[in-house]
Amino acid sequence: MIRGILYWVGGIIFTIPCALYFYLMYPFFRRSHDLPHLIIRFWSRILVKIFYGAGIEVIGKENIEPAKNYIIVSNHRSYTDILFANAAIPLQFRWLSKSSLFKIPVFGLAMKIAGYVPIERTKYMSASRSLEKIKEVLNKEKSVWIFPEGTRTPHDKPGRFKRGAFLLAKETDRPLLPVVLVNTDKIFLKPFIIRPVCVQVIVLRSVYYSDFNKSQMSERFVMDQMSQHIRKIIQSNYNAYAARF
Fold first, then answer.
1. How wide is the angle at C-alpha 66 spanned by C-alphas 176 and 203, nearest 5°?
2. Between the CA of residue 94 and those of 5, 67, 114, what are the distances in Å?
């Protein structure tokens, strides 16, 4: 209970100066497009380590090549996933996020400034425009992070993967980087009860569309094979590490 109160009160107090600093630095963002993400990463690390009291164990960091930019795909079990992803992965990446989040005062504007990409999944034209914006991010040598389930799946098995990330891999020839998030859903037992657990962030080997594109195979079949493969390795690694707790 005490840690929960500390998080909600202290976290809000800490967030206010971070937000002010973020907006004060706005004139410099055109010179350094990386700066917004660095500020958000700092904010995330403080919330996770100080206010959650959580540890972060990053496994497989050697699978990240800093000179490359990736289409990062991961499971999605908790609202805290975004904080832990920002805190743990040393890459410049942008999020694909629900368009409704961009309508939240202050928060939504910060997301827009940071270069996050909004999407309305139920509207084909919006989704298509979002894919084009993501291509622009990749062409600027930044990575993008996509939850292929499209929403949180608070179950032991990830939900059905949507095709967007795999279509991007085909059209941009960028590698897919699978990441597994373990224990992020165990932080909040109740809104004001926080359990300081250790979260595992497992970075797996990247894969390319061309790794699955064999002769005489249709595009849909290849993307289905990629989707099944990545879903399987995310699930197997999640099972292996979740079993330790």
1. 50
2. 31, 16, 8
The helix or strand, by DSSP H or E, that contains position 201, with its residue range, turns out to be strand 198-203
Query: Lowest-confidence range among 11-20, 173-182, 188-197?
Result: 188-197
- pLDDT-derived band of residue 40, with 50, 70 and 90 as boundaries? very high
Helix (H) or strand (E) holding 222: helix 219-242
Q: What is the reported pLDDT for 88?
A: 95
Strands 93-98, 117-119: pairing is: parallel
Highest mean pLDDT among 17-31, 49-63, 102-116: 49-63
Cα dihedral 9, 10, 16, 21 in deg (nearest 10): -170
The answer to whether the CB of 131 falls within 8 A of the CB of 144 is no
Q: Is the pLDDT of residue 126 over 60?
A: no
For the chain, which domains are there?
2-242 (3.40.1130.10)
Residues in the chain, total: 245
Q: Are strands 143-146 and 93-98 parallel, antiparallel or unpaired?
A: parallel
Rounded to an integer, what distance in angstroms lies between the CA atom of residue 7 and that of residue 83?
14
CA separation for the pair 49, 87 (Å, rounded): 9
Q: How many CB atoms lie within 10 A of CB 12?
A: 10
More confident site: 209 or 122:
209
Cβ(117)–Cβ(137) below 8 Å = yes
Distance CA(90)–CA(64), nearest Å, equals 9
- In degrees and rounded to multiples of 5, residue 121 shows phi and psi of -65, -20
